[in-house]
Amino acid sequence: MIFRIIFTDISINPRKIITHLNIKPRLCLLKSTAFDIIIHVKKVFIKTYGCQMNVHETEKLYSAFERENITAADCAENADIVVFNTCCVREGAETRVLGNLGQIKKLKQSKPNLIVAVCGCMTQQSKAAEMLHKRCPFINIITGTYSLGALPQMVKAVEKGEKFILDLSVNEEVPQGTNLATRSDNVNRFVNIMYGCDNFCTYCIVPYVKGRERSRRLVDVKEEVRILIENGAKEITLLGQNVNSYRDENNDFYSLLSELAGLNGDFWIKFMTSHPKDLSDDVIKLVGSEKKLANYIHLPVQSGSDDILRKMNRKYGRAEYLRKIDLIKEYIPHVGLTSDIIVGFPTETEKDFSDTLDLVKQVEYNNLFMFIYSKRNGTPAAIMDGQVPEEVKKERITRLIGLQSEISNKLAEKCIGETFEVLCDGHGKNATGKTSDDRVIVFDDGGKDYYNQFIEVQITSVKNSKLYGKIRG
Ligand code: SF4
Known about the structure:
The chain is an alpha/beta fold and about 475 residues long. Helix content is about 35%, strand content about 25%. It has helices spanning about 15-20, 50-65, 90-110, 120-125, 125-135, 150-160, 205-210, 220-230, 255-260, 280-290, 305-310, 320-330, 350-365, 390-415, and strands at about 1-5, 25-30, 35-40, 45-50, 70, 80-85, 115-120, 140-145, 165, 190, 195, 215, 235-240, 245-250, 250, 270, 295-300, 335-345, 365-370, 420-425, 430-435, 440-445, 455-465, 465-470. The protein has a six-stranded parallel β-sheet with strand order 5-4-6-7-8-9, sandwiched between helices. Helix 2 (about 50-65) links the parallel strand 4 and strand 5. The protein is globular and about 65 Å long.
């Protein structure tokens, strides 16, 4: 990006102004009648793969670059630095990273000074880092999940002549204090409450690439949430691989939620992801009784078959899961329930799968995130006997999608005539907003700006499970 500042008063020393603005000019042209200063502000583009945690890591990464006066680019073509913040939880994300790196290779041919960095879960596996370096020797930096904050410094080292940096070091220290990402949009803000995972579900790579479970201090989380609310945030989503096992000395997840619900302001708190074995009855009751805790629970079941759950090492059974669902429905009025399901886990029989269909019918989730099982190298499930053929997995997931769309539609139809409190996150004739139970509603804002405000919307119609409404006057 080029800024041009023209000084018409020659008594001004432009270098002093630049120092005052804290910007670093790359090129200055001085004319005799005026100072004409061209500043090249470096730009970074970050491509994010995977879950909300990665989206939030990217926000923090942009902020770390901003502190070094490197601003965000809208696409790779307009950037001086391109970062791939990768994910290895699903096979598709890895394949997309490799495809996108192919495009960057072409870009680098026309922009040889472009700095390319790959970070995140995928690179934390040493074999993946080796493979990336071999297949894409034009990558300047490969770093894992623990050193993300140091990326701007690594970029500086490359600018100074370092050819290639590989940093897969492991550092399980929990950062202290607040770590706020700067963002212009303030509607839904994320706050990490913990890192890593101790559960070792047999299909999942996360514990191997993100390390052991460790929580941030309650005072730090509370302060971060307080600042976000003070700055106008209305929806805060607490993030962790297993938020229910949050622990800071004597404080558990229940204490954390109670403290946050006691903060002043007009906001609601959502959280993800919950693990069915750790979601306590007390937390369920607290969510039901505190208005500032949203009526929304994402509770991944993964399978409806006890045998498959055991092989997945999920540490709960179907009956225990359903008991929690009953308790949630009893204590949280108008609760929005969503879940994750893996179809075609090794040895899954037609009977196992029909147990899953049966559980989905029983629970009636608002929404489901459905995945076909894919092998993750280094996990126990990848070497299990009884891998399910691809065509069987595809046929099963098609049935599951069909069932869920019937349920979603039925639940949506039931909303017609009801009025919801909605946090508006859009503008215009097709403005959108989210409810406390995490439904999206489309409505006409009548030309008024309700962005980031709570308003009342009555549901008037449903199309393909999507809710449409009108603002209550
Ligand atoms: S709880 Fe299981 S699925 Fe979730 S991150 Fe941990 S190991 Fe992976």
